[in-house]
Amino acid sequence: MERDRFSRCHPSVTFAFFIVAIGLGAMIMHPAYIIVSGIAASSYYCLIKGYRGLKLLVLSVPLFIFITLFNPLVNHQGQRILAYVFGRPYTFEAMVYGMAVAGMLIVMLLWAGCFNHVMTSDRFMVLFGGLIPTLSMLLTMILRLVPNMMRKTAQIAGARKAIGRGVGEDDPMKKKASDSMNVASSLLSWSLEGGAVTADAMKARGYGAGKRSSYEIIRFTPSDLVMAVGMIMLFTAVVMLIAKGGTAAEYTPVMNITPIGSSGLPGFAAYGIFLMLPTIMHLVEDLQWRISRSGI
Amino acid sequence: MKRSRAMLYFVLVILIPLTLYLGIRLPGRSYYLLSALVAVEVLTPFFMTFEKRKPAPRELATVAVMSAFVTIARVGVPIPSFKPTFAVILLSGIAFGPETGFVVGAMGALGSDFFYGQGPFTPWQMMAYGVMGLLGGLAFREGSPLKRKNIVMAVFCFTATVLVVGPLLDTSSVFITISVLSWENILPLYISGFPVNLTQGVCCFLTLMLFGEAILEKLERVKLQYGMMEDTDGV
């Protein structure tokens, strides 16, 4: 798989990025911040996913509309009453609140989508292999076993069919259920016995005797350090602003959104730059590639 | 074993209330962040005990197979929300004990999310699946009044799915989508989650009712035959 500049960073850097992006995204209710996070997340998501990324954006529109319209049905606080639904006030403030909640949810989903693309299971393992080696090993084994057991399932079903014990489309439900249970039962025995063989092999190869190596060698490079320091500085600026209440926003019962103003501008800019880092890195690399190619 | 209990009590009695107390004082809408933190705090003692215990390769392999089986029960069964996932976790808990059952459930949830996609719900899902294994292990431990019979396990699994694990899963959507926490806001989400929990429960009930004892016997036999859960590898 092709990895862009941001995905090639050390997993600790990318993991920290996503924790901060999703964490702050779930915390800050200020509309300007939600919009910035939305722009950053959707631009990076589209860069790495291409056409499929746009599809998710289009699909999130009905979700946005649904939550926006649904929120006033359960939240009746607010000043400007638009209508009465089931005898309860349907307010403008609650609707705007619904927009904010929907925006936050979609932003979180988009960041989670980027996370899935960047933090592949092998990078996950590099990150946690040193910290929690046993559980990382367990996760590796599970992720390997799933496709392995799927193949075994097909083999068992094929073997059953070959001796005339297979099931067809029009067999009764009861027969199908008991057949799939027979397959599952064989699969379980086979896999558990396979597990015993794996365990013996692990023991023979000295599992647990020393530090484990990983599939891909990923080093913490100077550029990762630069990235980490920059991220910490930007993050600190945002946290300072949050602590001062610069990102406060209330919707119901009275709408009260703190204007960004000149005092909040540095923190707001820091938030935007932080979240745009993956997009910027992707575009800069793209540009460099084009320039170096046009030089040939 | 004793240290893990102490750690669990520390988390439940001190850490979680402290998180909630401090979290409520955070500005803005921090429910989701708080709830994810609490879920992670519940996971930590179980995971750390497993990590510190340094399980032998045979035990590790068994836990991996059972977690992969949980993942397959969720990913491989083609009917939506009619999956025997919880039945598999429950049986793991019964056969291998509450702590291992928790790890099997939680890792099965994490593993299946690598196929379905991770999301803000992942920590909650891991906790809820883990709780099913924990409950199974505790309720059916040696000398418990509950007998390891098809009907008992089936009823237990159904009840636990509808009353405990399903609502736990719905709670994650409460924290992710609701703007103002109040009973009248939360109730619709639990009600809309109820049919899904019900079909899950029915699927698990049927699975255990028909094949519960048979699968359990299989697990017990393999455990004995290969000394799967023994520290010394039986060699």
Can you describe what's shown?
The complex is a heterodimer of chains A (about 300) and B (about 240). Chain A has about 300 residues and is mainly alpha-helical. Chain A has 2 domains: about 190 residues, no CATH class; about 70 residues, no CATH class. Chain A is about 70% helix and about 5% strand. Chain B has one domain: Arp2/3 complex 21 kDa subunit ARPC3. Chain B is about 80% helix and about 0% strand. Chain B has 8 helices and no strands. In chain B, helix 1 packs antiparallel against helix 2 and helix 6 packs antiparallel against helix 7. The model of chain B has no long low-confidence stretch (mean pLDDT about 85). At the A-B interface, helix 1, helix 3, helix 4, helix 6 and helix 7 of A face helix 2, helix 3, helix 5 and helix 8 of B.
Write out key terms for the chains shown.
heterodimer; A: 296 residues; mainly alpha; 2 domains; two-stranded antiparallel ribbon; 9 helices; extended; B: 235 residues; Arp2/3 complex 21 kDa subunit ARPC3; 8 helices; 79% helix; 0% strand; globular
In short:
The complex is a heterodimer of chains A (296) and B (235). Chain A has 296 residues and is mainly alpha-helical.
What's the layout of helices and strands?
The complex is a heterodimer of chains A (296) and B (235).
Chain A: H1 11-27, H2 31-49, H3 51-74, E1 81-85, E2 88-91, H4 92-118, H5 121-129, H6 133-162, H7 173-204, H8 222-243, E3 249-250, E4 256-257, H9 261-294
Helix pairs in contact in A: 1-4, 2-3, 2-4, 2-9, 3-4, 5-6, 6-7, 8-9
Chain B: H1 2-24, H2 31-53, H3 57-75, H4 85-96, H5 98-116, H6 122-139, H7 150-177, H8 183-226
Helix pairs in contact in B: 1-2, 2-5, 2-6, 3-4, 3-5, 4-5, 4-6, 4-8, 5-6, 6-7, 7-8
Task: Quickly count the helices of chain B.
Answer: 8
Order of secondary-structure elements of chain A? HHHEEHHHHHEEH
Low-confidence stretches of chain A: none
Strand coverage percent of chain B: under 5%
Count of runs of 4 or more consecutive helical residues of chain A: 9
For the CA atoms, what is the radius of gyration of chain A? 26 Å
The CATH architecture assignment of chain B turns out to be Orthogonal Bundle
Shape of chain A: extended
Largest sheet of chain A: 2 strands, antiparallel
* Total number of domains of chain B: 1
Largest interface, C-beta closer than 8 angstroms, per-chain residues: A-B, 68 and 60 residues
Q: Count structural domains of chain A.
A: 2
Q: Which strand order spans the largest sheet of chain A, edge to edge or round the barrel? A: 1-2
Q: What are the secondary-structure elements of chain B, in order, as H or E?
A: HHHHHHHH
Question: How many β strands of chain B by DSSP?
Answer: 0
* CATH class categorisation of chain B: Mainly Alpha
Biggest sheet of chain B, in brief?
none
The overall pLDDT average of chain A reads 87
Helix-residue proportion of chain B: over 70%
Structural class estimated from helices and strands of chain B: mainly alpha
